[in-house]
Design a protein that fits this description.
three-stranded antiparallel sheet, about 40% helix, 10 helices
Length: about 300
Amino acid sequence: MSTNDTSFGVLTLASPSDYLKAIGLALSVRASNPGVPIAVAAARRLHGYLQPHFDYVIEEQPGLRGFEHKVHLDEYTPFRTTFFLDSDVLVFKPLRPWVERWGDPVYTAQGSLDTGGFSTFGLDRAAVLKKLDRERFSVIEGEGRALFRMPECKEMFDLARTITANYREYAGDIVFADEDAVAIAMTILKMPPAPISQFFSRYLSGVPGTIRMDASRGVCHFLWRDDRRPFEPTMMHFAANESPIRYTRELMRLFRSNGVPTTGLLRMGAHDFWSSQVRLSLHSWKRKLLAYAGGRAGQQAVAER
């Protein structure tokens, strides 16, 4: 496939804090999906860093914040059929076969149908189902990947943008999450998620010590944590700065094997380690100390009565 062929391609988003991760994604796609064009949407000031690694560099829409860009993917993609992947994803196998396995959908993301429960961001699915008069909710937790087809997907994205603009009306008084907005739209339109399969993984999916990974050669296999079965995913998502040391090491290998300067990778990895490991640990210890101090104070007050 040449880059002039826009029938199928990969799209991601890049921000000032993660554009190096987006480059890493692109390098992994080049290794495992040769000939498949890659697009990125980003602020204009990042275009010079991204252009050597992407076939299409698209200016992001002004006025949108963070995750809001994800309900505008149809306005960013140059492709007829698009695989959207978060920037902190590495790809190991061909993506096109999944288009056929999932039936060339208008829009889908991996997940399941459910009748209740709460999302990671606090969405009460049972309450939403009652409000929408639907029986089952399209759950797409951790939506760092999606497959959609233009222009048929526009109805879903238009609805997701309407839900985003009126989020409390649909979701209640909770923090905005693009994956919940999209899931609500899918539920309204009765669009089922793609089935769970050996497509998606997280680093913590694997039994410690069993993960063998080299994105520069399209290699990833491990034993699945739940039942120790062999697993060879198509992609791995390092969401929420997960496993920053291993992820940074893999990015370093990808950059070096492609002759790309590694400037900034170690600093980014150190920041991710601080955010996901040190800061959270300090916060946890602070909560424990405050709870302990509060308990001691309560005991002393009782003793003094």
